[in-house]
C-alpha cells in the first residue's frame, strides 16, 4: 500500500468520524461526554446501591423524580424541603412502589435560608444513618422579571437561597466527607449558570456563583481523589420552576402554568443525572436542542453566542410581556422527547 493511499484512507476515516460526531450531536440531549458515559460507562444500578443520599428540594420537580429513581436502586434516602406534607407524600410513593422500608427514608424538613439549622440537620442525618455518601444540592428558585422592574429584595432572596444556602449546607456536610475521604457533592445548577438570558438576571447571578464556587472547591479537594464534586446543568425541564419563580417582588411569584411541551421530560433529565453520578463526571449539560447548541456556542464561540442571544433575548422579553412562556413560542422541539 502506497503512502498516498494510506493518507487518503486516514483522511476518509477522519471525515467519517466527524460526520458520525455531527449526527450524534444533532440527536443529543446532553453533552457528548455524558452521552458517551451513558453508552459505555458505569451503570447507576451498579455504582449507587447501598448509599445514603441526601436530596434537597425533594418535594417537587427534579428533586422528586430523582428520589423516585434513587429509591429503585436500593439507597437510603434523606428528603429535605420546606413543605413537610409534600415530603411525606413523596416518601409514601417511594414505599409503595419499591422495596424500601420506612427506616430507609428520613423526612427532614429544611429551609436553606435558615443557615443556623444546617448543622443540626447534618447531625440528625449522621445519627440516623451513620454516613452521608452523596449530597444532592437541588433546592432553589428561579426568576422571571426585568432587572429595572425588580426589587433588590428579590436578588437578596435568590442569593440567600440558591447560593449561600447551598454553600452553608455543603460546609456542614463536607467535614464528614473529608474524614471518610470519599463521597459525592452533586449540585443541580442550570445552563443559565453557563450562559445568560434576559428576565433571569438574579437567577443567572446565583447559578454563575455556584458554578464558580464548586469549580474552586473541586480544586481545593484535589488531594482527595475519592471525593467528587459535580455540577449538573439542565436546560428547560418539565416542572413547576417557572410557576414558582420570583417576579418583581419577593412576595410575588409568576403563579401561572406555562407550556411544557418544548421542555425535556423530568424522568429523562434525572436518568442522565444518575449516569453522571455513577461515572463521577465533573460537569454535565442536559438539554435538548437548540438549548444545547446555544450552550456549546457560549463555551466555544462566545462572539456568535452574544449575537444570537441578543436576537433571541428580544423575543424572549416580548413573549414574557404577552403572558407567554418566555421560550415556548420560538424554541421548537428538534426531536422526539425521551420518556
Automatic annotation (TrEMBL):
Belongs to the short-chain dehydrogenases/reductases (SDR) family. InterPro entries: NAD(P)-bd_dom_sf (IPR036291), Sc_DH/Rdtase_CS (IPR020904), SDR_fam (IPR002347), SDR_family_member_7 (IPR053011). Transmembrane segments: none annotated. GO terms for molecular function: oxidoreductase activity. PROSITE patterns: ADH_SHORT. The gene is DHRS7. Keywords: Oxidoreductase. This is Dehydrogenase/reductase 7. It comes from the Eukaryota. The lineage of its organism: Eukaryota, Metazoa, Chordata, Craniata, Vertebrata.
